[in-house]
Design goal:
alpha/beta; Spore Coat Polysaccharide Biosynthesis Protein SpsA, Chain A; Rossmann fold; 2 domains; six-stranded mixed beta sheet; 15 helices; about 35% helix; about 20% strand
Length: about 375
């Protein structure tokens, strides 16, 4: 039995990933390959819809799934094989190509993605040839071959799209992670005001961006403790430096004047204009809060956080930590899930109320959910 689950965020573009059988059925792939691709999609598709294909796939089923997506109003579908990784501006590149060229399918033999122009495509039957001259174990190859032999516009995937797609390779990926990353700006956008009545006393957050200051500014009447948690030594040192040396005025100027102290890390995201949104904090009061700095691996060392909590109302800002590909590569997929559930469960048992904000390892965006009352899942 095959089906399709859709997370709809817009109708221009939909990313399609099989969750059971890989499109590249003749490839050697593992659970981590599928997970890496799913995380890459989730992390780079804030306004893009995502379709998960369940069960076994063949060209007949895929043909109907693409027709269904077209009927739902989607304009372009990208079919991803397990192990494919994309960059943040991948959507922009496809949008630009759509406006400059006339095409129905972009593909290529033995390539990890195919792109279908649903808006212009009408002959979906041609993708499912009942009597192909050649049979391919690779479903994307079969679709591409069928399309090439039909009267539709089929083009090879151009270089400016190819250069924004990678194939997951553990050795190459780990090489890129050697630098200690520091996020001085937030990649998940500015946070809205906290809901009323939470009475947050303990804030657990990463040592990144200004969203943590924004959260604190919304609950200064009740906040007593901030637990800064980050695997990046550079990030922890930066937050400590800010608290020890900033006077509370003109944060943008402070960052520009002191950016030189970051010498042993990679500044992954920096947007000086972003700092214009720094909240008006009672800085002396903020500094007087209990600040705990933990340079730890959250997946394996969450007990170090638990022991600092004190029967309070806790807000855990997990941001997108649980969708970091590195956590899954180093610990395995199941261990990340187990770690998250155990960590949250222990927080619940030791505190009055535990609120969560961010994206959990299952890809769900959580907005200040009280997991003490409503459960973790």
């Amino acid at each position: 039995m095959s089906g399709m689950e859709i997370i709809k965020k817009g109708t221009d573009l939909v990313y399609v990933l099989p969750t059971f059988q890989n499109f590249l059925t003749n490839s050697i792939n593992t659970h981590i390959d599928k997970t890496i691709t799913q995380l890459s999609i989730l992390n780079n598709s804030q306004d893009i819809s995502f379709a998960k294909l369940t069960g076994r796939q063949n060209t007949y089923i895929i043909k109907h799934q693409l027709q269904d997506l077209k009927h739902m109003g989607f304009k372009t579908a990208v079919l991803f094989s397990h192990g494919a990784m994309l960059e943040l501006n991948f959507k922009e590149i496809i949008d630009n190509y759509n406006t400059q060229h006339h095409w129905h399918i972009l593909g290529g033999l033995n390539y990890p993605i195919s792109i279908i122009n649903l808006e212009s495509m009408t002959d979906f039957e041609s993708l499912d040839n009942n009597n192909p001259k050649e049979d391919f174990d690779n479903l994307l190859d079969q679709i591409y071959y069928n399309a090439v032999n039909s009267d539709i516009i089929v083009l090879p995937i151009p270089h400016d799209i190819r250069c924004h797609i990678e194939i997951y390779d553990k050795k190459a990926f780990m090489e890129k992670q050697k630098a200690s990353n520091i996020y001085l700006s937030d990649t998940d956008g500015l946070l809205p005001t906290l809901p009323s009545g939470m009475d947050i006393e303990t804030l657990i957050c990463p040592a990144s961006g200004i969203n943590q200051y924004m959260i604190a500014s919304n609950c200064m009447d009740t906040l007593k403790q901030i637990i800064w948690v980050d695997f990046s030594t550079t990030s922890i040192k930066w937050i400590q430096y800010v608290i020890d040396n900033w006077n509370g005025n003109d944060y943008k100027k402070f960052v520009k004047d002191n950016i030189h102290i970051i010498q042993d890390g990679s500044i992954t995201f920096l947007d000086y204009d972003y700092f214009d949104n720094m909240p008006n904090l009672d800085w002396e009061k903020f500094k007087s809060l209990e600040h705990v700095f933990l340079n730890i691996d959250l997946i394996n060392e969450y007990d170090d956080i638990i022991k600092h909590t004190k029967d309070s109302n806790v807000l855990v800002h997990i941001t997108n930590i649980y969708t970091y590909e590195l956590n899954y590569i180093e610990n395995g997929v199941n261990q990340v899930y187990i770690s998250y559930l155990t960590y949250m469960d222990k927080l619940i048992k030791k505190n009055k109320n535990v609120y969560v904000k961010g994206k959990d390892p299952f890809g769900t965006s959580i907005k200040y959910k009280n997991i003490s009352k409503h459960g973790i899942l």
